[in-house]
Design brief:
0% of the residues lie in helices and 48% in strands. It is built from no helices and 11 strands. By secondary structure, it is mainly beta.
Length: 122
């Protein structure tokens, strides 16, 4: 059974950091492009970052560039999203997803995790 499970969400103060994990089971994560997306209340789900399966190339939305870092640990079959300098506008449910094409467009992904809530507030 193909499954992605996110973890690491929670409450963090503005300016703080958080690391999200996306653990894969039932498949080899390195065979797929993995994307991180987020959805705030009343807003559409947007692409945050993604990493290629082919060469490990990484891509970021302008809103998080320089603050977030995506990485992959093949031995643990896990992708991470390190989030630094967090802002209240980063508050959202964060999802990871797997697909064939590396893209920040959510339509490019075939399977999704259940999401983890990140709240940035003092």
């Amino acid at each position: 059974q193909v499954q992605l499970v996110e973890s690491g969400g929670g409450l963090v103060q503005p300016g703080g950091s958080r690391r999200l994990s996306c653990a894969a089971s039932g498949f080899t994560l390195n065979d797929y492009a993995i994307g991180w997306f987020r959805q705030a209340p009343g807003k559409e789900r947007e692409g945050v970052s993604c990493i290629s399966s082919r060469d490990g190339s990484t891509y970021y939305a302008d809103s998080v560039k320089g603050r977030f870092t995506i990485s992959r640990d093949n031995a643990k079959n896990t992708v991470y999203l390190q989030m630094n300098s967090l802002k209240p506008e980063d508050t959202a449910v964060y999802y990871c997803a797997g697909g064939v094409v590396v893209t920040l467009d959510r339509r490019g992904y075939d399977f999704w995790g259940q999401g983890t809530q990140v709240t940035v507030s003092s």
